[in-house]
Amino acid sequence: MLRTEADLDLFGQCFAINGSPRPADHLRWQYLDNPTGELFVDFALARNDKLAAIYASMPVTFRIAGQRRLGIQSVDTMTDSEFRGRGLFLTLARQTYARARDAGVALVYGTPNANSAHGFFNRLDWSELGDLPFLIRPLRTKYFLERLGAPWTPDLPIPVGWRSRRATSVDRFDERFTELWRQFSRTIGVAVERDARYLNWRLVEKPSERYETNAIFDGDRVRAFTSHCVQKKERSAVGYVMESLCLPGEQRALRGLLRTCLVDMAKQEVDFALAWCFPHSPTYSSFLRCGFVPLPRRMWPLEIHVGAHAFAPDVSTYVTDRRHWYLSYVDCDTV
C-alpha cells in the first residue's frame, strides 16, 4: 500500500465488498496518520487491478525491557471471496514480516479470533500467550438474570460507590502523562509505549469515538488516570475501561478513578463494564477492589487469543512470556 487516496480507497472497497466495511477516516487515522510514521500494509493485486487480499499491520512503539523498540500489531486481514483458498493470507503475512525485519521491527503481536488463530500459531510461528485477560463488573441486574434463566428479571442498578472528589476531566495528554507512564512501566517487560503522543492519537484523535478521561493531580504530577467509553450493543450497553494507570503506591487514587468510571457508566444505564488486565499487572488488585472479577470463558462474546512473534532475537525471551506483558483495552483495535 502507498500513502495515496487511491490505495486507501482500494483498502476500503475490499472490506466493504466482503461485508466488513471500514470507514475511510478510520483507515486514514490508523495507518496514514499513525504517530510512528511507518506503514506496514501489504496488498495482493489481481491482473485486472482488483484487490485480492490485504494483510494490514499497525506500527506502534513498544517498551521492551526498558528500551523503546518498533513493533507492529496485526489488525486487518481480508481475502476477497473470489480469491480465497490460494494461500494469500500466509503469502502477504510473510511478506510483511520480511519487510518488518529489514526495517528493524522487534515484534508482531495481536489478538486473533478462533477463525484465524490456527494460521497465526501453526503457520506463522506465533507464540500463544493465552486467553485475553477479561475482567467484568456488573452494573445492572437484568442482563445477568436473563442469562441465568430467571423467570422474572427486574432491571435494578448495582451499587458502584462514589465518584472521586479529586477527579479532573482531561481533554488532552501532556508530558506529565508521559512521566506517569515512565514510572509505571519500570516493572513492565513488554507493552506499547503509552506516552502523551500515543495517548493523544489513540484516545483523543480517533475518529467517531469519544473517550472520557479523568485524572488526579498532585501539583505537576499525575497520580493516576483512567479513560473509558460506552457503546450501545444490540442487547446491552457496555462500558469499557480503556486504560487505568497510576504512580507506584497510588492505587487508592486509581480506585477512586475506577469508581468514577463506574458512576459515569451507571448514569448511562450500562449493563456491565469490561476491562483487560492480567493478574500480574500492577493495577489488577485495584480492579478487584472495585468489584471487577474475571469473566468466565463461557460468557465471552468471541473466542479470542493473545499471541506474538519476536523478529529480534534479543527480545524473544520477553515477547514469548505472558508474565512480561501489560495489556489494556487501549490495545484493542475495535473499541
Question: Which features does this protein show?
Answer:
single chain, 335 residues, alpha+beta, Aminopeptidase, seven-stranded mixed beta sheet, 14 strands, 28% strand
Q: How would a crystallographer describe the biggest sheet?
A: 7 strands, mixed
**Counting H and I runs of at least 4 residues, what is the number of helices?**
10
Class by SSE composition: alpha+beta
Helix content class: 25-40%
Rg for CA atoms:
21 Å
What is the N-to-C order of secondary-structure elements (H for helix, E for strand)?
A: HHEEEHEHEEHEHEHEEEHEHEEH
CATH class of the largest domain: Alpha Beta
CATH topology of the largest domain: Aminopeptidase
Give the N-terminus to C-terminus distance in angstroms: 25 Å
Q: Could you name the CATH homologous superfamily of the largest domain?
A: Gcn5-related N-acetyltransferase (GNAT)
Q: Estimate nothing, just give the exact number of structural domains.
A: 2
Give the percentage of residues in beta strands.
25-35%
Total strand segments: 14
User: Uncertain regions: pLDDT < 50 for 5+ in a row?
Assistant: none
The CATH architecture of the largest domain comes to 3-Layer(aba) Sandwich
Shape: globular
Q: Please state the average pLDDT score.
A: 94
